[in-house]
Design a protein that fits this description.
Largest sheet: 8 strands, mixed
Bound molecules: 1,6-di-O-phosphono-beta-D-fructofuranose
Number of strands: 15
Shape: globular
Distance between the termini: 60 Å
Structural class: alpha+beta
Low-confidence stretches: none
Number of helices: 7
Strand content: 15-25%
Length: about 325
Amino acid sequence: MKRLNSQLQQDGAPLELILLIRTLLAGCKEISFRVSQGALAGVLGSTLSENVQGETQKKLDVISNQILKDTLRESGYVKAISSEEEENVVPCNPEGNYLVSFDPLDGSSNTEINSLIGTIFSIAHAPQWMKPDDPSAFLQPGTQMVAAGYVLYGPSTMLAMTTGRGTHLYTLDKTHGGFLVTNANVQIPEQTSEFAINTSNQRHWEAPIQQYVSDLIAGSEGPRKKDYNMRWVAAMVGDIHRVLCRGGIFMYPFDKRNPKIPGKLRLLYEANPMAFLIEQAGGLASTGEGRIMEVMPHEIHQRVPTLLGSKEEIEACLAYYSKDKNKKAVAS
Ligand code: FBP
């Protein structure tokens, strides 16, 4: 099986980017080990502190964040970091050529139940003009990413990654500690009969998603004339991995609970990296209003409505949005 290095070289990734990716993955391997120790190492449970999102931090959130910060800062390749667990950007090497954004432990509410969790990351060029503590340098649209991926800590530790030349899946071979390509150039099936959304939020959704999901649930007796199945891992990294492996549609749409916050998932280190992976695998990634990777960020912890997955199913979902828009236009 092909090793990570040769796949990245084959995809034309510059040497410094390959070295940065290997450094980041060395941190993820350490996280994989710490996660696997669980209660044996007393790393389960919550801390008494909250992160900038107002979420109670899990011990493993803090441990994973520290591992990645230390690993990336020591590398010398990175000018600055933005992390879900850090209120402000973390300045690193003023001569660094890259910016790294990450969610150190996505789905951390799953740590206690030994379920799927992961690290999500995106990499972009660091503008020459920026000072290492300047958050405005991170406010680049997702189309500027040069690499993105996630490491999934599950029965096996897996990596999904793209540098813009296709999405590949890798499995960590713990005998020698290297990631081997186990599924090159993933292609997401254009059609699917599997959807993922937290239906307990249904009453807060906008009309298009309300109608779209109830038509999915109506199955073959409804307008979609096909039965659909539902899955929800409550860890984006797990739900997106399933979509990459067998297709599907993943949704965390806008909901009316707090109209100022247009969604739950964060643009820089959740929605954008997943959108890059999905698009490079032939899927679509939308906010409902437009392409996720074309959203111009205005702050590092910004949230966006997120619809990702199989091409034809996303198009079917977006048709509900445009139908609603036309109805409103006619009514006004
Ligand atoms: P974090 O765990 O990194 O905060 O991520 C948010 C997240 O857990 C996603 O991974 C997941 O898709 C979603 O929230 C689950 O939300 P909910 O708890 O509302 O089902």
